[in-house]
């Protein structure tokens, strides 16, 4: 619900202010995200919660890339400074700094990471971006197909690999590119598992729900 603001709150003679009222904290945060996308979207902001294809479409003006600029920036930083960090992607970053960075990117800024930036904070920012995509990296419509691949892989590996390759190639281009980018990076991360303690299984636990999940969560399906 919007409530018209008082005279003292008016921005100018031609711009009235409005008070946004939400019944819950989550509702309020959703409204703020939506408003940011409307205001800052044309300037490259509002990317948290924005459709992947919209972000990619806007960023094409800066050249072709496999992943959104935020993802590339986080990955480049982690690759340079954090691959040997124990608990990478498992340990949380500094919540207040993650929020500050999120707000900056959402306002169309391009904050840089320096030598004082905490690796776990950048890792948390990357996970947050993926988690807030309206759809996971593998779209909801492909969930059942990929779940069937997983079941086939456990029974007939060769046939499962062929089917998996087929399904991956059928993804929309922006989703395929991002999935490829993330998988290559996570392969680098697990190659240091002796130091960072992030095996393939640990990484799958952390990233799995952001890459593949059903639109309506079913506990039985999750267990499968």
UniProtKB/TrEMBL annotation:
GO MF: GTPase activator activity
Single biological process term from Gene Ontology: wound healing, spreading of epidermal cells
Highest taxon listed in the record's lineage: Eukaryota
Keyword Coiled coil: yes
Cited InterPro entries: PH-like_dom_sf (IPR011993), PH_domain (IPR001849), Rho_GTPase_activation_prot (IPR008936), RhoGAP (IPR051025), RhoGAP_dom (IPR000198)
Keywords: Coiled coil, GTPase activation, Phosphoprotein
PROSITE patterns: PH_DOMAIN (PS50003), RHOGAP (PS50238)
Annotated Rho-GAP domain residues: 50-224
Matches recorded under SMART domains: RhoGAP
Protein name as it appears in the record: ARHGAP24 isoform 8
